[in-house]
User: Which sequence fits this backbone?
C-alpha cells in the first residue's frame, strides 16, 4: 500500500480494446439474433412455452445491439460523448436491461427444463403460454426496477465522459448499490440455474427411460449456459465490484499496485460480457425445437449455392431433391 503516489491507470486501453469487440458483437449479434427471431416469428402459431422466453432473450439482445454504434463513436473519438447526458443514461440502461434480462430469461429456461424433466406429471398441461408471457413481463419489470437507480447516478461530466458506472463523487454509494445489484440480479439467478441443471443431470443419469436425444439436448444447453456464465457474467461482476473498490481506495488516498491491473481486467470483462448478445443465439438452437432443423436447412441451401457458383460447368449434375426428401434428411 502506498499513501503518497498512485500508479498510473492505463485509461487508453479501453479505447483500443472495446471498439473492435463492439464491431464484432454488433455484426455477429445482429445477424444471429435476426435469424433466430425470424425463425420464431415464422412459427408464431406454434409458439411454445420455452420459446416465449427465447423470444424475449432475443429482444433484449436487439435492444442492446442498437446502442453499440453510439458507443463505437464514443471510443473512436477518444472517450468524448457527443450525444447528451440523457442518451448516455439510456445507453447504459439498455446495457443493464440486456445483461440482467438475459440472465433472467436464461434462468426461466433452466427452471422450465427442470420442471419438464424432473416433474413432468405436475407440469404437463398446467403451465401454458399465457403463464410464460406473464412471467416474461414480470422479469422485464423486475430488471427495470433493479436497473432504474443506476439512471440517477451521474453519468457524464464536462470533459465529455459517459461513465459505465458513475463519477468519482458518488463512487462509495455506487459500490454499495452494485454489490446489492450483483446479489439480486446475478448471484441468486445463477444459483437457481446451477441447482436446476445439477438436479436435471442427476435425473438424466439415473433414468434410462428418458430418450437419448433429449439427454444430449439438455447437456448441450447446460454446456452453453456454463459457457455464458463462465465467460460473460462471472468475470464481469467480480471485476466490476473489485474495480469500484479500487476507485474507492484511490479516492481515500489508499493506493495499491494492483489497481491498474484490476482496471484493465475489468475492461476486458466488459468486452466479454458484451459477447452474450452474440452467444445467446446458441440458445435458439437447443431451446427451440425447430431451430437445429432450420439451421441445417439454411446451411444446406448455402452449400448448394456455393457448389453452383464453383462448379457451373460440371459434367455430372446431381438430381435436385424434392422438398419432401430434404425434409426427410433433416430429421436425422
Assistant:
Amino acid at each position: 500500500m502506498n499513501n503518497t503516489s498512485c500508479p498510473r491507470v492505463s485509461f487508453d486501453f479501453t479505447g483500443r480494446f472495446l471498439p473492435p469487440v463492439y464491431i464484432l458483437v454488433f455484426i455477429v449479434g445482429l445477424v444471429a439474433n435476426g435469424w433466430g427471431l425470424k425463425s420464431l416469428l415464422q412459427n408464431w402459431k406454434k409458439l411454445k412455452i420455452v420459446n416465449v422466453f427465447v423470444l424475449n432473450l432475443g429482444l433484449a439482445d436487439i435492444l442492446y445491439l442498437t446502442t453499440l454504434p453510439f458507443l463505437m463513436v464514443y471510443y473512436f473519438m477518444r472517450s468524448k460523448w457527443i450525444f447528451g447526458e440523457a442518451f448516455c443514461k439510456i445507453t447504459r440502461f439498455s446495457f443493464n436491461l440486456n445483461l440482467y434480462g438475459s440472465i433472467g430469461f436464461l434462468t426461466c429456461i433452466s427452471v422450465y427444463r427442470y420442471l419438464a424433466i424432473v416433474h413432468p406429471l405436475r407440469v404437463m398441461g398446467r403451465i401454458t403460454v399465457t403463464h410464460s408471457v406473464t412471467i416474461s413481463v414480470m422479469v422485464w419489470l423486475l430488471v427495470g426496477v433493479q436497473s432504474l437507480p443506476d439512471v440517477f447516478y451521474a453519468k457524464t461530466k464536462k470533459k465529455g465522459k459517459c461513465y459505465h458506472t458513475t463519477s468519482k463523487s458518488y463512487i462509495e454509494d455506487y459500490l454499495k448499490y452494485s454489490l446489492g445489484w450483483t446479489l439480486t440480479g446475478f448471484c441468486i439467478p445463477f444459483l437457481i440455474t446451477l441447482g436446476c441443471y445439477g438436479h436435471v443431470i442427476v435425473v438424466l443419469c439415473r433414468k434410462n427411460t428418458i430418450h437419448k436425444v433429449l439427454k444430449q439436448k439438455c447437456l448441450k444447453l447446460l454446456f452453453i449456459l456454463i459457457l455464458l456464465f463462465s465467460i460473460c457474467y462471472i468475470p464481469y461482476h467480480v471485476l466490476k465490484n473489485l474495480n469500484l473498490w479500487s476507485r474507492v481506495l484511490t479516492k481515500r488516498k489508499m493506493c495499491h499496485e494492483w489497481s491498474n491491473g484490476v482496471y484493465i481486467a475489468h475492461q476486458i470483462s466488459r468486452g466479454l460480457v458484451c459477447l452474450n448478445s452474440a452467444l445467446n443465439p446458441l440458445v435458439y438452437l437447443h431451446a427451440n425445437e425447430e431451430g437445429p432443423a432450420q439451421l441445417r436447412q439454411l446451411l444446406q441451401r448455402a452449400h448448394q449455392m456455393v457448389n453452383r457458383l464453383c462448379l457451373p460447368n460440371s459434367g455430372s449434375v446431381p438430381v435436385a431433391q424434392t422438398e419432401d426428401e430434404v425434409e426427410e434428411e433433416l430429421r436425422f
In short: Residues 12-289 form a domain with the Rhopdopsin 7-helix transmembrane proteins fold (CATH 1.20.1070.10). The longest helix spans residues 212-251. The mean pLDDT is 82.
